[in-house]
Amino acid sequence: MEKISINFQDRTSYTDFVWIPCGCTFDITGIDQHLPTNDSQSIIVFTELFQFSLFFLLIHLILSDKFWHWFSTKKHRQQQDRQTNEFPFLIEKKEVDSQEQEQEVHNPIDLSSSSPTTIDNVYCVNNQQQNNDCVLIDQVISSSSSLSPNSLLSFKSNENDPLISNNNHPLILQQQQQSHYRFDYLNNKNSEQQIDYCLYNNNDNNNQYKQSSNCLIDNNNNYYNKMVDMMHQGPYMMNNNTSPQMMGGPQPDGYMEQEEEWEREGLLDPAWEKQQRKTFTAWCNSHLSKAGTQIENIEEDFRNGLKLMLLLEVISGETLPKPDRGKMRFHKIANVNKALDFIASKGVKLVSIGAEEIVDGNTKMTLGLIWTIILRFAIQDISVEEMTAKEGLLLWCQRKTAPYRNVNVQNFHLSWKDGLAFCALIHRHRPDLIDYSKLSKDNPLENLNTAFDVAEKHLGIPRMLDAEEMVNMVKPDERAVMTYVSCYYHALKGAQKAETASNRICKVLRVNQDNERMMEEYERLASDLLDWIRRTTPWLENKTTDNKLSTAQKKLEEFRAYRRMHKPPRVEQKGKLETLFNTLQTKLRLSNRPAYMPSEGKTVRDINNAWKGLEHAEKGFEEWLLSEMMRLERLDHLAQKFKHKADTHEGWTQGKEAMLQSQDFRNCRLYEVKALKKKHEAFESDLSAHQDRVEQIAAIAQELYSLNYHDSASVNARCQRICDQWDRFGTLTQKRRQALEEAERVLEKIDQLHLEFAKRAAPFNNWLDGAREDLVDMFIVHTIEEIQGLIEAHEQFKRTLGEADQEYNSIIKLAQEIQSFATQYQIPGGVENPYTVLHPSEVTAKWNDVRQLVPKRDQTLQSELIRQQRNEGLRRKFAEKANGVGPWIERHIDAVAAIGMGMQGSLEDQLMKLRQYEEAVNMYKVHMEELEKIHQEVQENMIFENRYTQYTMETLRVGWEQLLTSIQRNINEVENQILTRDSKGITQEQLNEFRGSFNHFDKTRIGRLNPDEFKSCLISVGYNIRNDRQGENDFRRIISRVDPNNTGYVTFDAFLDFMTRESTDSDTAEQIIDSFRILASDKPYITAEDLRRELPPDQAEYCIQRMAPYKGPGTIPGALDYRSFSTALYGESDL
């Protein structure tokens, strides 16, 4: 009979059947290696009649529990064998006797020798033979219960450092220097295979495995991972005291491994188990619903492994191996193992969780597995400020709920019992869903139900917790709450990230573009204004003239045109420039940008200094021009007066020098000599009378010279000729008198009658000359009192004409008597008066001339009186208008200043009042224009003083410009305060408090504080400034923020910005960087296509033109650096 042998040892599948032909015998061997010893048996020869019995026996074996336990163990061993091919960590076992075993145990193997040591013995403990071919090193070493202190298996290097020791910690690597160990072993087929292991020490004193030319280890610690995985699989699991960190491996995240050991016999708290079951079931269904399925019973529905694999595929987005569709137990175990293998491939260490427990429906193991999945796929990726997942999730909750009353999140159990924390999370992201102000801490059940209903309806978060259980439990289950809260995190955190990032970038870019436009406008206006000032100032500083009145009058007309047409637009431009600068600085402060520093020489201080220089030059030019007009007018009057007196004197001196030099007395008789003597005496009397005129001529010439008269040279020359002639007259007169006195002694007779005529006619003639000079004298007056004084003097002169008429009649009568005597006595020579050259007809002519000049003088004085009366009317008209405009301007300046103090109602009320005042000022401008016209007429009439008013046109202009500037500045300040209040969210009460404190220390009411006043103001509003060196340093930093231009004072806008900055938050460069990172899908660079896709066209092109190329690792063509661009927006680098 033929015999057939069946060897199960060489078979890999135990579900195949071997059919034995009828009449043959067969032998089964090798099955004892796969079944427990007490179940192994030899089956000898069967005939064809017993084939069906054998078939049923095999079925029985397949369905038995022991078979499946053996099957699962065999599968793990097969997996270990596959890993051993890559990472041999097994020692081949041979048959040796007990003596050899003990000898090998007690004699350490020295691996530091130059030749490799071949491990060709089996290492067994206490002579206990193993049923397996191979034994793990850690299995041998960790069997501490079977090792005595003297039977220690140890491996040593040449430094005698222990590598493996019997301390229940297998493979504790403590080598400090490079060591090279070589293990030789024989596999099942008796072929020798050699594997090298290398161990290196890094700088952190943590053992790291690295690859060398003869090592299997790579830089990613694959050796370590394979080794640890092998130790954690199957029945050869590491003991509880062993950890990967003891092997020198990296420290994993606390939530990548299980928080505690899932003991097979332990039980959960019933309340916690119920809550976890409900929460985990809801969490699983929230993901399984995406695949169109659900679970009802968490421990039952995962037993076949199908929905467990489906759940992993949904939450990971990856495809798992195809599941076994059979319903047998081994099919279920195989499916669960596929799920466990997938979880392990994600770096999760499944301690004490096996497929059998899941298939058997172990509640604790199933909940533990689901919790591990939740930790890995729902909570692990939560990261806040480099914290662990749990701490990060807790910190996220604390930050989001911090502003809400009655919410204090400290953990994931008691902090959530009243439901307010859930409601706060929803309200923080979706305030339209919950009215948080109506919630009460005393009604936790309603709060919880409200949060759960809203989350399920509007956020797509299933109801994972029960409100009544949360309220009734002393301490809710932390894992259940964490699972539910993580759903909130993912539902709320990921929503609208791209849109938020895009909006933030657009907002910042718009602000930046507006700021750039304002900076360019400021630079343009500043350059234009400064250029105009530079062109105008030299013209105003040019105070030279040719000393001609016509030239000065032309300059006056040019100055009036400058005041009327050229300067007012520049005043408006300067106010616009200051408003633009203040608005720009406010916007920069509110958007966290650095203060704008204009180009060199174009700061507000530079412009104000230039403007002050212009006004100073303007004031000096006007004062000089008016004084020059007065000087030139007086010079012209003096020149005319000099010419008139000089002409009169030269007319008087004509022929006098020849007469004084004459020797006519040599041939005269005595009486003729006497006559000549008397004539000379009369001449001397006349000469004395003319002395005053000569002194006046000299004084006028000296004054013209001192006043820098343009023709002073000719005046001085003429004056010098007159003075020289006058000196010669004195000498000649003295000589002639001496000659006549000498001749008198010879001549005794004299004509008494001619003598009397000469004596009386000469003074009268001199008076006539003086009167004629006074009547034709030119005069200049500026007031009505002065002209009235001249009229009074003229009237007094007219009252003396009666006496002069009598004197004239007496002199003429005397001449008539001489003529009558000469005619009566027929004395031809008696008519000629030897004592005087003055003829009666000459006296008559001068007298008639004087009488004709008197009415002309009356008319001239009356005309000047009328002109001065008209000027007086102009003074009164200007004064009346100025006395109305001046107080009006002062009242409005005070009113605007009062509004500027900020204590009259809300900012909107202040702005409305300022607008009303602005409108009133614009309407009142017509009065200023009328006043300018009157002032022009006053200047045209050469009116320089006005006693009827204290206001001058210059002071009114300054007041008017001050009023306009004050209104514009206060409007700008109020608008900036409104902008600050609205953007920073401060209340009107806070603003009033800040304004009140600021005004209290603004003693001078100029709208700014010096550093000491500012420090006192800060202390008054509760800002703590320490009284030590640190406090001084802090205050200097504060001053650098509120006064970036080092002006030496702090404005209210800067003070308000500092106070609001202390209590509010705003955009930062890091926020913009995070926003760009979202648009770039977490890449360190962004492309032009990304920007054009996410941003409006103009904003996208703005970014593309200004972003520098990205030069970091992993760059691509066209990559742009958004980090440097974002920091440049906030002044942290150059754009």
TrEMBL record:
Record GO terms (molecular function) = actin binding; calcium ion binding; protein-containing complex binding
Pfam families per the UniProt record, alphabetical:
CH, EFhand_Ca_insen, Spectrin
Q: What is the lineage of its organism?
A: Eukaryota, Metazoa, Ecdysozoa, Arthropoda, Chelicerata
Matches recorded under InterPro entries: Actinin_actin-bd_CS, CH_dom, CH_dom_sf, EF-hand-dom_pair, EF-hand_Ca_insen, EF_hand_dom, Spectrin/alpha-actinin, Spectrin_repeat
Keyword Transmembrane helix in annotation: yes
**Sorted alphabetically, which PROSITE patterns does this protein's record hold?**
ACTININ_1 (PS00019), ACTININ_2 (PS00020), CH (PS50021), EF_HAND_2 (PS50222)
Entry's SUPFAM superfamilies?
Calponin-homology domain, CH-domain, EF-hand, Spectrin repeat
> What's the protein called, per UniProt?
F-actin cross-linking protein
Record's keyword terms, sorted: Actin-binding, Calcium, Coiled coil, Membrane, Metal-binding, Repeat, Transmembrane, Transmembrane helix
Q: Does the keyword Transport apply?
A: no
Q: Which sequence ranges form a coiled-coil region, renumbered to this chain?
A: 914-977
Q: Which residues cross the membrane?
A: 43-63
